From TrEMBL:
Belongs to the peptidase M1 family. One of its GO terms (molecular function) is metallopeptidase activity. GO terms for biological process: proteolysis. Its cofactor is Zn(2+). Coiled coil: none annotated. It comes from Pseudosporangium ferrugineum. Gene3D superfamilies: Neutral Protease Domain 2, tricorn interacting facor f3 domain. This is Aminopeptidase N. Pfam families: Peptidase_M1 (PF01433), Peptidase_M1_N (PF17900). It catalyses: Release of an N-terminal amino acid, Xaa-|-Yaa- from a peptide, amide or arylamide. Xaa is preferably Ala, but may be most amino acids including Pro (slow action). When a terminal hydrophobic residue is followed by a prolyl residue, the two may be released as an intact Xaa-Pro dipeptide.
């Protein structure tokens, strides 16, 4: 974890003593304790927090590209999952000036990249509560030595917030782990003539005093790392597809009809192709954003509006990467990770979606893609437990796709394509694990697949071709 800048809160001290109970029935014995300073993920124990479950984030922010300063407020609605004396929010490099819990002043202190909040009264298990944090500063990214830079990054004409496995804490207070999904609303105020693109359905734009407020709403629960905002000089094209808004943004630095724009213009077509295989599109909006910045050498499945580095479109259109990120809207976004170890559920199925798309357009069959990948593959890293430093390696993506294809060959097309729809339908707007996928595959096929998955997910030697 990167070191955090100092964070101060007016009147914020913490003596460690549990506060008084809040509206507790006299017959109930309460035992208030602090929420855990981490969600307990085996790969990233410090990510996220315990003691509460977030229902929604509502951000009202203002960003000045000239100074790099971000300021505003975050309103967080949540429910206590224990008798809670205090709780943590993830917040890096930003300074909170005022915190309230249910309208009452709360105290807080900084602890590395955490904001530790002590409400005026203890929060009883099962109680819904609302936190408002007013904060400001110049956001900075987080640098994971093994996985790279993620989070808020300033640009010449704006900024963007993007990254995996962590990003959100660099621009708003958050329970930053995918196991705690929540709805998301953003009102981002920027100077007139600057665009601000976020997740979900676009809302009303207001202009006053040389500033414009852009509004975005994602009403389906979302993992925190999938939240994004992209600020700068963009051509924003808004249309509808299948009765839902589609927003595509390409930077003005790129040609209006160049490879990037032509690739994203196929978003609706590709989403429809995937819907025929995975079931109905799971969100209320479509779209995509291209970032023309050498620091972004990847694409990310930010919910309802994937973000693509222009590296994919340097010389020609690339609808295959669009297929990959759109497949994540089912596998990775609507059905999110419960723990980072299971990232193959995201990347294996999205990579296999590339193979299905390539077969659809006549580039190669899924079997040919499997055969090319299988030849000479290094099996030393297990797909089902790659380790935190190899979250984005070949064992997760390419071998993950081979697992999916081998499963298809093992259970047959009828059961396989039924599974492709049944699994995201069963876990829509929720989380899932490898064990959930195995159980679903066994139900769909009527077969005991324990040995199959043990070998393909965890074996360190080449698996027999199915």
């Amino acid at each position: 974890m990167a070191v955090a800048a100092a964070l101060t809160v007016a009147g914020c001290t913490d003596d460690g003593e549990p506060p008084a109970a809040a509206s507790a029935p006299p017959s109930v014995a309460l035992s208030f304790a602090p929420g855990a300073a981490g969600a307990g993920d085996p790969y990233f124990p410090a990510y996220g927090n315990g003691g509460y479950d977030v229902a929604g984030y509502d951000l009202k922010l203002r960003y000045d590209p000239a100074s790099g300063r971000l300021e505003g407020s975050a309103t967080i609605t949540a429910t206590a999952t224990q008798d809670l004396s205090r709780f943590n929010l993830d917040l890096a490099h930003l300074t909170a000036s005022r915190i309230t819990v249910d309208g009452q002043a709360a105290t807080g202190r900084a602890d590395k990249n955490e904001l530790v909040v002590t409400p005026a009264a203890g929060l009883v298990k099962g109680r819904a509560f609302t936190v408002v944090v007013e904060y400001a500063g110049k956001p900075q990214p987080l640098n994971n030595e093994a996985l790279g830079v993620g989070g808020w990054q300033r640009t010449r004409d704006g900024a963007f917030a993007l990254g995996q496995p962590e990003s959100a804490s660099t621009w708003f207070p958050v329970n930053d782990h995918p196991s705690d999904k929540a709805t998301f609303a953003l009102a981002m105020t920027v100077p007139d003539g600057v665009e601000a693109i976020g997740n979900g359905v676009p809302g009303r734009k207001d202009t006053a005093g040389g500033w414009t407020t852009w509004r975005w709403t994602e009403t389906k629960p979302m993992a925190s790392y999938l939240a994004t905002v992209v600020i700068g000089q963009y051509r924003v094209k808004t249309s509808t597809h299948a009765g839902k808004p589609m927003v595509i943004a390409v930077p003005e630095s790129l040609p209006a009809t160049g490879p990037a724009a032509r690739s994203l213009d196929r978003t609706g077509e590709i989403a429809d192709f995937l819907a025929a295989r995975f079931g109905p599109y799971p969100f209320d909006a479509y779209g995509g954003v291209v970032i023309d910045d050498n620091r972004v050498g990847y694409a990310l499945e930010t919910q309802s509006r994937p973000v693509y580095g222009n590296v994919f479109f340097r010389t020609r259109p690339n609808p295959t990467v669009v297929a990959h990120e759109l497949a994540h809207q089912w596998y990775g976004d609507s059905v999110a990770l419960e723990r980072w170890q299971d990232i193959w559920l995201n990347e294996g199925f999205a990579t296999y979606a590339e193979w299905l798309w390539q077969e659809h357009v006549g580039e190669q069959t899924a079997q040919q893609a499997f055969d090319r990948t299988y030849r000479g593959f290094d099996w030393q890293v297990p797909t089902g437990d790659p380790g935190a430093e190899r979250l984005f390696g070949a064992a997760v993506y390419q071998r993950g796709a081979m697992v999916v294809h081998a499963l298809r060959r093992t259970i047959g097309d009828e059961a396989f394509f039924a599974l492709l729809k049944e699994f995201p339908a069963a876990h829509r707007d929720a989380n899932a694990t490898t064990e959930d996928l195995i159980a679903a595959a066994e139900r769909a096929s009527g077969k005991d697949l324990g040995d199959f998955f043990e070998g393909w997910l965890f074996g360190r030697t080449p698996q027999p071709r199915p």
